[in-house]
From TrEMBL:
Domain of life: Bacteria
Keyword annotations of the record: Amino-acid biosynthesis, Decarboxylase, Lyase, Lysine biosynthesis, Pyridoxal phosphate
Matches recorded under NCBIfam families: lysA
Name listed for the protein in its UniProt record: Diaminopimelate decarboxylase
Length: 432
């Protein structure tokens, strides 16, 4: 469910007409509904109720990479969520937004020594280690600082998530985690390292999953591993089950499993584990809470169907170009008419295409369109390609709204460049 509805002939975000935001801020612009974010957080938390397996209620650590906007993170922090981060920058963003350090989990395959030190000094809850060399590096950093790092190894269970290849993370040839068959030996070596508290296991097999069976298969393997590790004397107290549950992008397709369905599956899979569960939802919380608002520049005749050229582009919303992702495209002021068209942006790339041969609500020059389900992996991937201004973001709460990231002026973008001395002085100093 989201809070983007047609009222009085125009789409609103909660109580605010999108036309008002477009007129005031300009387009393209991302618009988030705080009510939708809050509702999805509560629904997911309710789906996990009853999953206190002996070490406390589950920790829901929002995947910051899906939407790192400070207002989004602060909204979720007020709902009691933690954060799953994959960089020092995301860690600092989460802390600045009010996420307690002990509710932060640091994932990712390429943590640097500087990032490890930052996280240790801030007192984060857990590091999810992706390799034995990473464990050795973290041990050295923790020992140097006189601190202890609570850690879990991310396990690669070699389970096909059944999702797009670029967002599948749990197969043997993916870069993530350590091999399942080598896990017991890896834990033994990590337990011998100073500065590490080997406390948990972690798994995450992919994103936008629409079938619970791969998750259940991965969790079954994790349950067996927990028992094997305890038999070897390891004090396993946490199990991070990752995220990845899909959201509905195309209303014509069957809906993904509900959070309640997911919670029931987890309940069955984790019987007897005696751990604190950790979850890393991202898209599930914020995906349907955002839209990308764009204005039609012009309609261009095509060989088979017209091109609807909008002022949003692949630099604003990369997912269709990167993943062949599908976004519902709606007219902000629908007339009831429809046509088949290609929807494209102005960037000088054939890949700057949002939809081909799409049956959409009819629009014309100057009309507003909304790319739905654009709250996750959207603004965070935006760039300034083609020297286009970085897309601004707006958050709505009831009848109030605020700019939560301004549009950076092109003049400021250009001013960020620096001339080398041989150009600024007019003399080429290379070679003397």
């Amino acid at each position: 469910m989201d809070h983007f509805e047609i009222k009085g002939g125009a789409m609103h975000a909660e109580g605010v007409p999108l036309t008002d935001i477009a007129d005031s801020v300009g387009t393209p612009v991302y618009v988030y509904s705080s009510a939708t974010i809050e509702r999805h957080a509560r629904v997911f938390r309710e789906a996990l109720s009853g999953l206190d397996l002996g070490h406390g209620e589950p920790l829901i650590a929002f995947a910051v990479k899906s939407n790192p906007n400070a207002a989004v993170l602060a909204t979720l922090a007020r709902e009691g969520l933690g954060a799953d981060v994959v960089s020092g920058g995301e860690l600092l963003r989460a802390l600045a937004a009010g996420v307690p350090a002990d509710k932060i989990v640091f994932s990712g395959v390429g943590k640097t020594e500087e990032e490890m030190a930052l996280a240790l000094e801030r007192g984060i809850g857990q590091f999810n280690l992706e390799s034995e060399p990473e464990a050795e590096t973290l041990s050295a950093v923790a020992t140097r600082l006189g601190l202890s790092a609570r850690v879990a190894f991310r396990i690669n269970p070699d389970v096909d998530a059944g999702t797009h290849a670029k967002i599948s993370t749990g197969k043997a040839d993916n870069k993530f985690g350590i091999a399942y068959d080598g896990a017991v030996a890896a834990y033994a070596r990590a337990a011998a390292l100073p500065g590490l508290d080997v406390a948990g296991v972690a798994v995450h097999i992919g994103s936008q999953l629409t079938d619970l069976n791969p998750l259940a298969a991965a969790f079954a393997r994790i349950g067996v591993l927990i028992a094997a590790l305890r038999a070897e004397g390891h004090d396993i107290r946490t199990a991070d089950l990752g995220g990845g549950l899909g959201v509905p992008y195309d209303p014509a397709l069957p809906a993904p499993p509900s959070p309640a369905d997911y919670g029931a599956m987890v309940q069955r899979a984790t019987q007897g584990w005696d751990v604190r569960l950790i979850f890393e939802p991202g898209r599930l919380i914020v995906g349907n809470a955002g839209v990308l608002l764009s204005r039609v520049i012009r309609i261009k005749p095509g060989a088979t169907h017209p091109f609807v050229i909008v002022d949003a582009a692949m630099n604003d919303l990369l997912r269709p170009s990167l993943y062949d992702a599908w976004h519902d495209i709606r007219a902000v002021t629908p007339t009831g008419e429809r046509f088949v068209a290609h929807v494209v942006g102005p960037v000088c790339e054939s890949g700057d295409t949002f939809a081909t041969n799409r049956d959409i609500e009819a629009v014309t020059d100057g009309d507003l369109v909304a790319f739905m389900t654009a709250g996750a992996y959207a603004a965070t991937m935006a760039s300034t390609y083609n020297s286009r201004a970085l897309t601004p973001e707006v958050m709505v709460s009831g009848s109030d709204w605020a700019i939560v990231r301004p549009r950076i002026a092109l003049e400021a973008l250009i001013a960020a460049d620096r001339m080398p001395p041989w150009l600024s002085s007019g003399t080429n100093t290379i070679g003397g």
